[in-house]
Amino acid sequence: MIWKEHLSETLRVWKQDIESLDQKWEGLNLSELLNYMQAEENTVIGIFGEFKVGKSTFLNALLGEKLAIEGDRPTTAVATKYTYGMKNKYEVQYKDGTSRSLSKELYSKLSIEIPETRSERDNIEYFNCEIPDERLKNKVIIDTPGFSSINTHHDDVSKKIIDEVDFAIVLVDRNAASTIEMLKLFQKNKVPVHGIYNDRDRSSMQVNDGEEDDGIIINLKNALGKLIISLDCISALDAYEGKVKNDQELYRSSNFEVVEDLIKSLHLTQDQRTNRVLSKLVECFQYFHTTLKKEKTKYPITFYGSIMGELLDGNLPSTFKKHLQLKKKIEVFDRLCLALADVLYEDVRYLDHTYHEELKATLLEFGLIGQLPKYNWNSINRINDIHQQIDNESIKLKSFRENVSRSWQKESKFAFLRKHALEMIFTKQYEFNNKRTEIIELENEAEFLLAEAEKDLEAYAKSLTAAIHSIYADVLDYRDEAEKQWYELWNEQNQQLSKISLPNLKGIKKIQHACDVFINEMPMFFGQEYEEIKFNFEYQKAKYLFEIIQEESFDMPIDVTVK
User: Fold this and answer.
1) Within this chain, do residues 216 and 291 fall inside the same structural domain, yes or no?
2) Residues pairing with 438 in the sheet
3) I need a labelling partner for 417 at 20 to 30 A (CA). Which of 2, 64, 176, 435 fits?
């Protein structure tokens, strides 16, 4: 899709430019968005749960080998991403953007919560493990630290991963209250959740304990309600041992096949992938916009107070006044351009009299009414009057016809018709025929007048369209001239500002440069129409935020020279 190529290129340039500024934008997450776009064909599945629910055993059972370290204390300290590869490969990604390959032994040592590796582990963003497992093609499975562990930073890591996943598999225990609080985090981020109750000692339980499992599942489903899509009971320990020992009966008794089927079924549609990318773009824009607003609030009182104090005897105040006048003039021209553009998209022959009058009123407001051709609407008004008259006469004619019918029915009851009654009926019938003839004549007159009016209206439409085109071109010229004057004044103002020696101007200049980078790069993407996403809600939100940032950036000085 061409829109993805354009967006990737724009984001790469923006990231490169923004990183060259002497200012940190830690929440912008452009690298994360670019990485997601490169791997967006993958469906990202997160494995979550409180500590000691058996996440590591569950993952080892899924992958069929002991990759995740198990233990009674919190073991998983850093998120690990499992992806498909031709052979086993372990890599660490650090928070500063660097990475290095690891042996399996070193990966196992760094990934668990032990004191001797803490200093290095605190700098790790995540681990990436490539495994030659066909089920991982087009999928990324993320193992996360447990919630509610004795190490509070584990919660922070897991909460951050929630925003990266497309689906969540959450291992739950019997404590529904703590599970509910955890699941609300997924609901807030609109992440679909599938629950797994891991009965770790299932193989050692008595046969009738299966009924106890069923009761637990029912109670959990009732408690968790709509926070989860599904909930199944499995034994990860039995599944792992069944795979390692090639014990098919033990594996089947673990009920782990439901997990295999679930993993296979989880995938994103193309629309969901598109929404995911664009929603992350919206998050970037929202962070950038919020940060700009926060930074701008640090400077305005000192900044503008110093301007007015140091340049009170200069021409800056009058320049501000001219700016406001020209800005208002440009806004007026913009409104007129929109009004004229609406007309140019319509066939003026089908615009009613009222709309024509509204158009004239709009043009009169701008002093342009003299350029419009005139049209005599009397014939159209006459046609409307005739149609109204036909409607009124038709109603009367219907009543008259009913009267004649009643007279015939009344007199036909006698054996013979009386002479005077017959004459009366014939008279009424004669009047009815005359009125009908009058209506036909009115209809013929209206049809004739309409044919003539349409010829005149078609000629008027051509001349009106030509006039509107001419007015539209003139208005665009007027607007361009006003905008040119605005920029000339803006440059004059910048020359005045460059005379000011003010420490705060350094901070303002950094913010302005960040805005300039954004405004220079983003039109590469938003300046084109993309049929597949132009009606997408997230795309429209991103475009709206782009326009807001673009407009607000001009509230700050441009090209300030700091002494």
Assistant:
1) no
2) none
3) 435
Provide the pLDDT for residue 45: 93
Closest CA to 33 of 538, 514, 552: 538
* Mean pLDDT to the nearest integer, 404-409: 70
- Strand 139-143 and strand 80-84: the pairing is antiparallel
Q: What is the pLDDT of residues 170-227, one digit of tens each?
A: 998 877 777 888 888 898 888 999 999 987 544 433 334 455 566 778 888 888 888 8
Structure tokens at 53: 């629910």
Taking the alpha carbons at both ends of the chain, their separation in whole angstroms is: 48
Whether 59 shows a pLDDT value over 80: the answer reads yes
Residue found under tokens 């043009």: 363
Residue 120 forms part of a structural domain: yes
The amino acid that residue 529 corresponds to is E
Q: Whole domain around residue 175: which residue ranges?
A: 42-268
Report the half-sphere exposure of 226 (CA within 13 A, side-chain side): 3
| One domain for residues 22 and 53 | no
Give me the amino acid identity at 35. N
- Dist. CA 389–CA 383, nearest whole Å: 10
SS3 string, 103-151, reads CHHHHHHHHECCHHHHHHHCCEEEEEEEECCHHHCCEEEEECCCECCCC
* Cα of 558 vs its chain's centroid, Å: 31
In a domain? residue 351? no
Q: Are strands 89-94 and 193-198 parallel, antiparallel or unpaired?
A: unpaired
Cα gap 546→538, rounded to integer Å: 12
Q: Would you tell me how many other CB atoms lie within 10 Å of the CB of residue 367?
A: 8
C-alpha 48/C-alpha 162 separation (Å) is 9
> For 46, phi and psi rounded to 5 degrees?
-100, 140
Q: What pLDDT, on the 0 to 100 scale, is given for residue 330?
A: 75
Q: Cβ(95)–Cβ(123) under 8 Å?
A: yes
Percent of the chain with pLDDT over 70: 70
Name residues whose C-beta falls within 8 Å of residue 148's C-beta, 6 or more positions apart in sequence.
Answer: 50, 51, 155, 178, 182
How many domains are contained in the chain? 2
Residues 33, 72 within the same domain:
no
CB-based contact 43:267 (threshold 8 Å): yes
Measured CA to CA, the distance from residue 127 to residue 148 in angstroms comes to: 22
- Angle at Cα 370 formed by Cα 450 and Cα 482, nearest 5°? 130
- Please, are residues 107 and 127 in contact by the beta-carbon 8 Å criterion? yes
Q: What is the CATH number of the domain that holds 133?
A: 3.40.50.300
Rg (CA), the chain: 39
Rounded distance between C-alpha atoms, residue 275 and residue 509, angstroms: 35
Token pair of 254 as six digits: 């673990």
**pLDDT band per the 50, 70, 90 thresholds, residue 257:** very high
* Cβ proximity of 42 and 165 under 8 Å: no
Nearest to 285 by CA among 541, 529, 95: 541
Average pLDDT over residues 388-408: 74
Q: Between residues 453 and 62, which one has the greater pLDDT? A: 62
- In 460-477, which positions are buried (b, 16+ CB within 10 angstroms) versus exposed (e)? bbeebbeebeebbeebee
Q: Are both 21 and 123 inside the same structural domain?
A: no
State the average pLDDT for the chain.
76
